[in-house]
Design goal:
This protein is globular. The chain is of the alpha/beta class. The protein folds into two domains: 142 residues, NAD(P)-binding Rossmann-like Domain (Rossmann fold), CATH 3.40.50.720; 272 residues, 2-Layer Sandwich (Dihydrodipicolinate Reductase, domain 2), CATH 3.30.360. The protein contains 16 helices and 15 strands. The strands form two sheets. Strands 14-13-12-11-7-10-9-8-15 form a nine-stranded mixed beta sheet, with helices on both faces. A six-stranded parallel beta sheet has the order 3-2-1-4-5-6. The structure holds nicotinamide-adenine-dinucleotide. Nicotinamide-adenine-dinucleotide (NAD) binds next to helix 1.
């Protein structure tokens, strides 16, 4: 099967914060891969804009180094015409020394971008600069119908700050021009989840509380907070992961079929899910903080504050109060310094209503597992007869949908989430981006949980580095007669 790459219209892209970590690790290497794939063609300008003193030559060197470091193992990294491709890509790059809060650099930036073309402004900077950047772009006349902005997480730290951010950017850009990134939505498998649900007849009739016992969503990391302690200690797992990535996954699993795969149709349905979430009581949520293990320091030590009550782990039981999901709990957990790095959604179906087999054939249920990392793929656990002459013994085996086998290695070399999302920005497709009201509804739900912890003065429980989280999180499911799936890659 030959993959189809449809080139996007030529564009000007300004990366505010173009010398930052995100630009270096994701944006620039991702753009180069799309260039190698033939999706970026023609007269394109990619303009880094940041405070660092640098000229365009220096920025091209910076980009070349980032590409060498972060694009290893990808086709365009060792194709024969790699040097020529790189040279052609780097020729598209420009750099402007610019202060988001001052006047420096703005006239030069205005000269470099061209009115009437698609102009995308990527705000890869701290959120406090979103409002000033939007205002400045407007005031110096760089906003027209074809202009759009991309904003990164964190989008606020609570409902109030998210509203303020929404208001600040909405003053100068319409909702159709605002692309709020949640890179989980750019993952191939997440989109496949929608294809599987809405492109096949097989699953949708079973996709409700009559047939689904419960759903588990796990995003586990092995790393700790590293050097992000300052930011992380003000956020915690609830704000950093649950409010955005895990809730977005929950929405895609739980939403009603949209009438069309179109931005507002999809986002309307996701919003309805968030609005149908019950409040989470204290008995439905467990927080944790990792301990050190001799080799690696504990959370408290890393942030240098013995009294910190910020969680590096959170597990909760959510209920979506509507006809489809009444009685089917959603268990969500995410944390740092856990046993393995893995992200998955497991849809656990109910047992067959009556077993015709011997009692010792055990209990079996189908599980649909959507793996997001480290290897993307979808697996359906089915029960079959154990091969051999020894009578009717049952065994669970995976029906593994390995994209690499089914589609060939070329198609399974998925674009990174950022690559896809940036191309969607240029194409003007907002389906995989969060709408303002969605973000606010998600904050309203998580704020209440965070407020509860504060009011009760609750401190997180501790858990060992390399474990599956605090024991109480296991109890959260045991109480319901269920168990978490093992955290394994
Ligand atoms: P960073 O600190 O590495 O880089 C910040 C960039 O902003 C630098 O280029 C700096 O020069 C520029 N900058 C700072 N103040 C400026 C000003 N007044 N005017 C113009 N430029 C200014 O940050 P980062 O890790 O690249 O993150 C950027 C944004 O993306 C943040 O909002 C962050 O939360 C978000 N984000 C980052 C990652 C990641 O993996 N790094 C992931 C998700 C979200």
């Amino acid at each position: 099967m030959v993959s189809r790459v449809i080139p996007v219209e030529p564009f000007d892209l300004v990366i505010f914060g173009g010398t930052g970590d995100l630009a270096r690790r994701k944006i620039l290497p991702g753009l180069f891969r799309r260039f190698c794939a033939g999706q970026i063609q023609g007269d394109v300008r990619i303009i880094g804009a940041a405070r660092a003193e640098m000229d365009t030559e220096g920025y091209r060197q910076f980009a070349a180094e980032a590409i060498a470091e972060f694009n290893q193992g990808h086709d365009c990294d060792h194709g024969e015409d790699q040097p020529a491709s790189l040279k052609a890509f780097l020729a598209m790059l420009h750099y402007v020394v610019l202060d988001a809060l001052g006047d420096e650099g703005w006239p030069k930036l205005k000269d470099l971008t061209r009115p009437g073309r698609i102009r995308a402004y990527y705000f890869s900077v701290a959120p406090r600069l979103f409002g000033p950047l939007a205002e400045k772009l407007h005031d110096i006349g760089m906003v027209d119908d074809k202009a759009r902005i991309v904003v990164e997480k964190p989008f606020g730290r609570d409902l109030q700050s998210a509203k303020e951010l929404n208001r600040a950017i909405a003053t100068h850009f319409s909702e159709e021009q605002i692309y709020r990134i949640d890179h989980y939505l750019g993952k191939e498998t997440v989109q496949n989840l929608m294809a599987i649900r809405f492109g096949n007849l097989l699953f949708e009739p079973l996709w409700n509380s009559q047939y689904i016992d419960h759903i588990q969503i796990t995003v586990a990391e092995v790393v700790g907070i590293g050097t992000r302690g300052d930011y992380y200690d003000r956020a915690g797992a609830m704000r950093d992961m649950m409010q955005n990535h895990l809730m977005q996954l929950l929405c895609l699993i739980a939403m009603e079929p949209p009438a069309k795969f179109k931005p507002d149709a999809v986002r309307d349905e996701k919003l309805k899910v968030i609005r149908a979430l019950d409040p989470v009581g204290p008995e439905d949520v467990v927080r944790g903080q990792y301990e050190g293990n001799g080799e690696r320091p504990g959370y408290i030590h890393q942030v240098g504050n013995r009294d910190t009550k910020t969680e590096s782990y959170v597990a909760l039981r959510a209920r979506v109060s509507n006809w489809r999901w009444a009685g089917t709990p959603f268990y969500l957990r995410t944390g740092k310094r856990l046993r393995e790095r893995t992200s998955e959604i497991a849809v656990v179906f109910k047992d067959a209503p009556h077993s015709i087999f011997d009692e010792d054939s055990g209990r079996h249920s189908n599980i649909l597992t959507i793996k997001l990392q480290p290897n993307e793929g979808i697996e359906l656990g089915v029960t079959i007869k154990e091969p051999g002459p020894g009578g009717m013994r049952l065994v669970d085996v995976p029906l593994d949908m390995s994209f690499a086998e089914a589609l060939g290695p070329e198609e399974a070399d998925f674009p990174d989430a950022y690559e896809r999302l940036i191309m969607d920005v240029i194409r003007g497709n907002q389906t995989l981006f969060m709408r303002g009201d969605e973000v606010e509804a998600a904050w309203a739900w998580t704020d209440a949980i965070i407020e509860g912890w504060k009011d009760r003065g609750e401190a997180p429980l501790t858990y060992a580095t390399g474990s599956s989280g605090p024991d109480d999180a296991l109890m959260l499911m045991h109480r319901d007669g269920r168990r978490w799936r093992e955290i394994k890659a």
